[in-house]
Amino acid sequence: MSYPHLPPARPHRRATSLIAALSLILTALFGATLAAAPTASAEGNGVGSTPAMGWSSWSYIRHDPTAANIEAQANALKSSGLSSAGYIYVNVDDFWYVCPGSQGPNVDANGRWVTNTSSFPASSSGENGIAVVADYVHSLGLKFGLYVTPGISDQAVSQNSPILGTSYTAGQIANGSGEANYNCGGMQGINYSAAGAQAFINSWADEFASWGVDYLKLDGVGDSDVGDVQAWSTALQQSGRAIHLELSNSLDIANASTWAQYSNGWRTGGDVECYCGSDSSGNPQPLTSWGSVQGRFAQVAQWQPYGGPGAFNDYDSIEFGDGSTIDGLTTAEGQSQYGLWAMAASPLLLGVDLTKLNSAEVADLKNAAVVAVDQDGIDARRIVSNVNQQAFAKTEQNGDVILGLFNYSGSASQTVTVSLAAAGITGSATATNLWTGASAGTLSGTYSVTLGAGASQLLKLVPVAGTSGSTTYQAAASANTLAGGAATATCNSCLGGKKVGFVGDGGTLTFNNVQAASAGNYQVQFTYLDGTSGTTVGRSATISVNGTSVQTLAFTPTGSFANPGTVNVSLPLKAGANTVELSNASAYAPDFAAITVPTTATSASTTYLAASSSNTLAGGAVVQSCSTCSGGQKVGFVGNGSGTLTFNSVNATKAGVYPVQIVYCDGTTGTSGRSATFTVNGVVVQTNVFTPTGGFSTQGTVTDYLPLKAGANTIEISNGSAYAPDFNAIVVNQ
Q: Strand pairing of 616-618 and 605-609?
């Protein structure tokens, strides 16, 4: 939570030191440890293996939580059947403590916030009022959550409160800098190198544990609060109670690995509430708007590599369930918010008034098939982003594919078209509509659906045996050979639930029985995991086929060693059985989950240079010199509204979906590069967000699956609002 008017952002400060993760966690989650420096792991507190589900007070109750209204919401969570569907957390957000003014929250004798006894009265036996509510929530079979912000209250500092169990005081640990407490204020930072600092947070965590807290939201977190996050992680773990730690809000993606190491989840953006009205009683109404939800599509795509079991991307509350008048979303828009969160494996924390639930929308919230999509813990990747047409896909451990298609527009119908190959289906698949449970038939090639304003469709695609046109070989299969330290490890987001780590540094992984129908070059897809941070170039591996080194490939980081990515590599295979060995003589390679080999070899590949005179350049797009590019040239200034590059005569022997390798240069700094929209024969197919290559003279490649007709095709590259990367060529494999 936060009010829409926030204090000025604090100065950016990157953490300079991180606590090394336990080797057991590294082995289980990453499979390999960097020799030069420790790699961050997911929070190891034993909770948060799946995204949290429940309800939070901020959206509806806001600044007026009381024992009575929190218990009423808990009752409604239980009686509605939502708790039986997995919604089990009842979380109290801000304003549970006493805030007298700018001097900061009132504190007890040891400097910790004190409960507002007017709203949360103590029991007749003297039990703290928050503990009383937690007891009630627990009596319903639910879990209880609470809210806090970094730092220490100015009041604790001014009275120099003693730190429980030590000889230190608040004045000795406070650093005098302001801390973000959005609504009360009066907090200052803690110097965590000072003796007594960790003991202070430990005492606070112990108190929360004694009250029965199961979930703690640490709000107002920025880059300068890494010390607070580390301290709270440590404190909660030593408290003796399993407590979920959630961070908020608008966390820095550059520090994603740090948030994952020390917490169970983090808010990727600001509040989803629209703060746009109230009813006659002063209650917030509507809670949100479709415009507020729209901003999450880009966040889901950008943060996709960083979430996973134990630590998830949090896109804020679900504002769906009270009907459009109260929650602000039509049924279609509410389904889309819920569906997008599920595709992204985000926490599902309802923000609506549970005492005023809409029965039809509650049925959607309890839809077991959609809940399962969220609870698989796998973040979907965006495969289509064309202004108002969005699509995301993820592959389950059993090989099924979940496909989410969304109409971004809140005012008009849109037809969303996807390549099933881009989603992970290379042959045919039976489709089930997860909203209705009805069959959507057998699909192959491309799929289109027309969706109303703000509407969506979620499909479960089950590959039809014998039609895929490819064979997947899992890295952890017993038929493979692991040597020199390479070992299998659990990977919840990998096909089959396992991967192979510690490849390289002497360790090798050999696929021993890779079958090919005939000799030729095959476009082999490698599914790998690379948590290298701080660079666009990850670990590397040498690929050897039948004892001969074919190439050494530098992989693009996937965000973490729990998040798979894919890359296609052309490998020469002989007819019959082949061996494919992965190695690195001097350093660790990525972890590997699988390779997928198409049934047929690539009969031909044709390279089309972007600077060719047969192409059409329009609106400012120009040919530029590029000494490192094929042909010595590239095309720049594509996009920015009118600049387009059109390949006019891309030939295909027959109609189908073809792997097309895009060769580009993108010197954007950061983790996410420029984007471009691909239009084939006048039909928009998809928009790519490219990975930066490190410079506008440094090439990178990405493979798209584009639908081509027999004969000549046109492929146009554009960007309606900003510059696209520079382009050197496209390579069409047939």
A: unpaired
DSSP output for 100-117: -STT-S-B-TTS-B-B-T
| Spatial distance between the Cα atoms of 734 and 681, rounded to a whole number of angstroms | 18
Tell me which residues of the chain have a pLDDT lower than 50. Answer: 1-41
In the structure encoding, which two tokens stand for residue 341, read together? 């969160």
Omega before 286 within 30 of 0, i.e. cis: yes
Phi, psi for residue 334 in degrees, rounded to 5: -65, -40
236 three-state secondary structure: helix
pLDDT at position 21 is: 33
Confidence (pLDDT) at 25: 32
Query: What CA–CA distance (Å, rounded) separates 655 from 659?
Result: 13
* Collapsed DSSP state (helix, strand, coil) of residue 370: helix
| Cβ contact 90:55 at 8 Å | yes
- Tell me, what amino acid is at 389? Q
Whose CA is closest to 495, among 379, 397, 375?
397
Q: Which pLDDT value is given to residue 35? A: 30
Q: Contact at 8 Å (CB) between 379 and 313? A: yes
CATH architecture of 383-463: Sandwich (2.60)
Under CATH, which number does the domain 470-598 receive? 2.60.120.260
- Tell me the sheet residues that pair with 689: 675
Cα(294)–Cα(406) distance, rounded to whole angstroms? 11
- CATH code, residues 51-78+268-379: 3.20.20.70
How far is it, in rounded angstroms, from Cα 316 to Cα 299? 12
Q: What is the pLDDT of residue 364?
A: 97
- Cα(470)–Cα(479) distance, rounded to whole angstroms? 18
CA 199 to CA 203: how far, in whole Å?
Answer: 6
Q: Could you give the C-alpha distances from 307 to 562, 637, 699, in angstroms and in order?
A: 8, 34, 28
Closest to 529 (Cα-Cα) out of 309, 233, 253: 309
CATH number 1.10.3720.10 is the correct assignment for the domain at 605-733 = no
How would CATH label the architecture of 92-267?
Alpha-Beta Barrel (3.20)
Spans of all domains in the chain: 51-78+268-379, 92-267, 383-463, 470-598, 605-733
Distances (CA, A) of 88 to 52, 348, 358: 8, 10, 19
Measured between alpha carbons, how far is 620 from 639 in angstroms, rounded to an integer? 8
Q: Which residue has the tokens 């002989």?
A: 574
Yes or no: say if 729 and 715 are a contact pair by the CB < 8 Å rule: no
User: DSSP of 635-663, one letter per residue?
Assistant: EE--BTTTBEEEEEEEEESSSEEEEEEEE
**Tokens 């019959």 sit at which residue?**
576
Domains 92-267 and 383-463 belong to one CATH topology: no
Instruction: Report strand pairing: 699-708 vs 656-665.
Output: antiparallel
Helix, strand or coil, per DSSP, at residue 587: coil
